[in-house]
Write a structure and sequence with these properties.
globular; 2 domains; 229 residues; Rossmann fold
């Protein structure tokens, strides 16, 4: 994308949520299927796409990005980069490389803000013996595993194309979890000098309330770290 300008802001892993004023990106195949409705209908028909996604809207303005690759932006062109519950889906080495790419693309004074599941919070829940009714079991350990989501409780079901997709790509499960110390250390390793944990909706990014959704990351189980280049 060579038509960027210094004020552009990048939203990584947006899902179907594409707020205006951001370059909204996601790695899901839904981004591609949104541009090819006939292929989407075929994917639904053969069971590759779950029926729950039949009427799930994905704006066709979303840019498909594989975050394990180099970001397609020139150096020092972005003023802010935001992601919510994305970094934990990458292996630590991949997350480190991504933060390095983010730093390369940020202009001086630009801000990177990453929201991830808070490992310390969930371990404290386990220590206190909390049990969630939606967890696949009736013990604190089941609740912890449900929260960490390192793997789903059962192998992927459905048609063989869908099982193959999950076996090969494995995007949904978590690969690496962070507490405040380890995430700040990752930022520093990527070249950011002073990362710090931030409360929900408190940021150096103007208009953070338009992209950070309390219904998605509220409730105390999310860690947010922000750093300036």
């Amino acid at each position: 994308m060579n038509n960027t300008h210094p004020g552009e802001r990048l939203h990584l892993g947006c899902g179907g949520f594409a707020p205006p004023g951001w370059i909204n990106t996601d790695g899901s195949w839904h981004v591609w299927l949104a541009r090819w409705p006939l292929v989407k209908r075929l994917a639904l028909a053969i069971g590759l796409l779950p029926a729950m996604h039949r009427d799930h809207p994905w704006p066709d303005s979303i840019l498909r990005l594989d975050l394990r690759r180099r970001l397609p932006f020139p150096a020092e062109r972005l003023s802010a980069v935001y992601s919510s519950h994305v970094l934990e889906h990458l292996h630590r080495a991949e997350a480190l490389a991504l933060l390095g790419e983010i730093r390369r693309c940020l202009r001086p004074g630009g801000v990177a803000r990453m929201a991830v599941p808070d490992l310390a919070f969930h371990l404290e829940e386990y220590r206190q013996g909390r049990i969630l009714p939606e967890a696949p079991g009736a013990t604190p350990a089941d609740t912890l595993m449900h929260r960490l989501y390192l793997r789903p409780p059962a192998p992927p079901g459905g048609s063989w194309p869908r099982r193959l997709y999950h076996a090969v790509l494995d995007f949904n499960s978590h690969k690496w979890l962070y507490d405040q110390e380890s995430l700040c250390a990752l930022f520093r390793e990527a070249g950011f000098a002073s990362p710090e944990a931030c409360p929900l909706l408190t940021s150096r990014i103007p208009g953070i309330e338009h992209i950070e959704r309390p219904e998605r990351i509220g409730g105390g189980g999310t860690l947010i770290v922000e750093a300036e280049k």
